[in-house]
Amino acid sequence: QIHLVESGGGSVRAGSSLTLSCTISGLPFDEYYVAWFRENPQRQREGVACLWRDGTTREFGRRFEGRTRVSRDEEKLSLYLQIDRLKPEDSGLFYCAADEDGYLLFPDAEKWSYWGQGTQVTVSP
Questions:
Q1: Residue 36: beta bridge partners?
Q2: How many CB atoms lie within 10 A of CB 26?
Q3: Nearest-5° Cα angle at 36, 30 to 41
C-alpha cells in the first residue's frame, strides 16, 4: 500500500522559513514524480514544487520560485519542502503527491494518483 504523510506545518510570522516533510511508503522514488501543492480556503490547489524521479530535476510554481527548495532522502523515505520569506498569502493546506507521470501534470494538481492528508501552514503578518 502507498501512504503519504505530511508533517511540519504550523503558525509562523511573515518573513520566516518553514520546512515540511512527507514520509512516503510503498512506492520507489526512482519510479515516481513527487510534488507539493498548496490548497487555499476556496479549495483550489496550486503547484509549489515538483521533484522528478531522477532526484535532481526540479520545477516550481511561479509564486514560489526563488525561495523554495525541494529534496528527498531515500533512506528516510522522505520528501522535504523548505519555503523561505513566507508571506500571509502562502497560508493554506500543504499536500504532497506522487504520480508515475507527474512531469506531465505539474503544476496542475488534477490527476495526481496519490495524496497525503495535508498539513496546515498559517503565516501571520
A1: 49, 96
A2: 11
A3: 160
In 3D space, the residue among 4, 50, 55 whose CA is nearest the CA of residue 29 turns out to be 55
Separation of alpha carbons 105 and 10, rounded Å: 28
With H, G, I as helix, E, B as strand and everything else as coil, classify residue 29: helix
Residues 34, 109, 47, 6: what is their CA dihedral angle, to the nearest 10 degrees? Answer: -50
Q: State the residue for C-alpha cell 515538483.
A: 50
Q: What is the pLDDT of residues 88-104, one digit of tens each?
A: 999 999 999 999 999 99
Q: What residues form DSSP beta bridges with 69?
A: 82
Peptide bond into 41 cis (omega under 30): no
DSSP codes, 47-106: EEEEE-TTSS-EEE-TTTTTSEEEEEETTTTEEEEEE-S--GGG-EEEEEEEETTHHHHT
pLDDT in tens, 100-116: 999 999 999 999 999 99
User: In the chain, pLDDT over 90 holds for what percent of residues?
Assistant: 99
